[in-house]
Amino acid sequence: MNHTKSTFRGLSDGLRRKVPSQMLYGNALFLTATEALRRRESHRSEPKAIVVAIGYPLTDSLFSPRRSTDLTPPCDNYTAPEGPDGKPKIEGHGGADKFLTFITEAVQPFIRTVFPNISFRKTALFGHSYGGLFVLHCLFTRPSSFDLYLAASPSIWWNDCFILSELARFCDGVPLEHPPVLRLSFGSREQLPVREPGESLEKFERREVAARRRGMEDNCSELYDRLSKAGLLRGLELKEYLDEDHGSVIAPALNGAIVFMEM
């Protein structure tokens, strides 16, 4: 990789069989994830999971602009997404394959080096938004990389729903020897937003149009239906979180992913 990546890990005391979860957007989500895990496991004799967050060198910003390059699939044709002002938002794209190689060839061996006495019974990948898109790209193109795929509010809309072409190729493929599991989740207010206190009608209407165009619920439902019919996964779940928008849904989606990993 041309740029430095930072890896954060949530340590646990037990040294038996664990589920290591590699989580994207580490700068923004790591503390939320570890606190959720700590609260859930406070009454247990032995933790069941390890959280490994993949982020970037720390700055004042929660999100690095490099994420748009690292988390989006390579493609021949590209349409830039609209920014809040309705104009094309210029950002990098198409580096997901290189980033996935970094995870499988650098991060995963690093985890086993740091925890040499732990037997990993399964591995998981969690991502939200562009991170959720990356999770789906990984599932559809290199499905044996992980056992559990946890896609929260995935940006299926990106580049005219390009990921659906990868879905089609995946569904047309041969059955996998060790099929993975996918959990999809989203917030009910992502496609149907609610006007916020003090928000102007003009701003809300722009946000409402953008939300409907991106179609989070419709896209997740279509993805679920097509994967369910294909029957290539060992497990498949679609979870809607009521009264949550694209930002607020992160906390319940993370907690739900932790519960899902332990099943």
From TrEMBL:
GO molecular function: hydrolase activity, acting on ester bonds
Region of interest (Disordered), ranges: 66-90
Gene3D superfamilies the UniProt entry points to: alpha/beta hydrolase (3.40.50.1820)
This protein's record includes keyword Repressor: no
Keywords noted in UniProt: Hydrolase
Pfam families: Esterase (PF00756)
Similarity comment: Belongs to the esterase D family.
Name this polypeptide is given: Alpha/Beta hydrolase protein
Organism: Aspergillus puulaauensis
Lineage: Eukaryota, Fungi, Dikarya, Ascomycota, Pezizomycotina
